[in-house]
Design a protein that fits this description.
This is Tyrosine-protein phosphatase. InterPro entries: Prot-tyrosine_phosphatase-like (IPR029021), Tyr/Ser_Pase_IphP-type (IPR026893), Tyr_Pase_AS (IPR016130), Tyr_Pase_dom (IPR000387). GO terms for molecular function: protein tyrosine phosphatase activity. Its EC number is 3.1.3.48. The protein contains 13 helices and five strands. By secondary structure, it is of the alpha/beta class. It has one domain: Alpha-Beta Complex (Protein-Tyrosine Phosphatase, Chain A), CATH 3.90.190.10. The protein has a five-stranded mixed β-sheet, with helices on both faces. α7 packs across α12. The longest helix has 15 residues. 44% of the residues are buried.
Amino acid sequence: MTIGLEGLQNFRDVGGMPLTDGGTVRSAVLYRSEGLSALTDAGVAALSASPIGVIADFRTPMEQRTAPDRLPADRVLRVVELSVLEGALTGAAKAAASDGSSTPDAAMIEQAIRQLPALGGLYESMLEHGAPAFAEAARLVAASSDDSPTAVLVHCTAGKDRTGVSIALLLDAVGVDRDAIIADYAASERNLAGPWAERMLAGIAQMGAPLTPEIRTLVTGTPRAAIEQAFAWLDAHGGAAAYLQSGGLTDDELATLRARLRA
């Protein structure tokens, strides 16, 4: 079932991606996107009619308050909050862009941003601290079923960093070709280009930070080298499957996840 959610720029089904040993990822099981605050009425209606029944939200409470998800009123979707702090810079930019009354301390903001790692380092930090949250996302996918609308939509604010790492973990753990995973990750930068990216960068500028190339990449980029750095970290720590198990995913849940996502 192919669906589109009007108002979103970075929404997609990861189904159809190739597995290393043949076959593809099952469609209508796992979706990814940016935050859902921009859904139009038609987008909300499409979400209601979709197979999606579970939303895994990696945003912080501040991000959720600033840009609440628009959800259907005619059907209950289960929302699971899996807050991961690393990657919240885009959420802060979104808040600043939507609140012209804020007067941040420019010097403090600039100092804080200068201390941020590059995107690959940010992903390593996510992985170092986020295993329980990422394992819970895997558990939600493993528990989904074709018998009811329980497909999982994973999102954060941009749908590129926390979401990108989570989706890469899930796909790598079930045996998806890494070049395909990297290509899916890289697609987010193209999807978000234009008005969305411009609004986020305007929010950063409003916070008083210089729009350096590094900041532009942190907020709007998905360079191949960044996700490759995350994969290198995973490989050095036993791989994606072992990593998810370190966060609490059981052997049975891992086996179910693989059966659920492999067509």
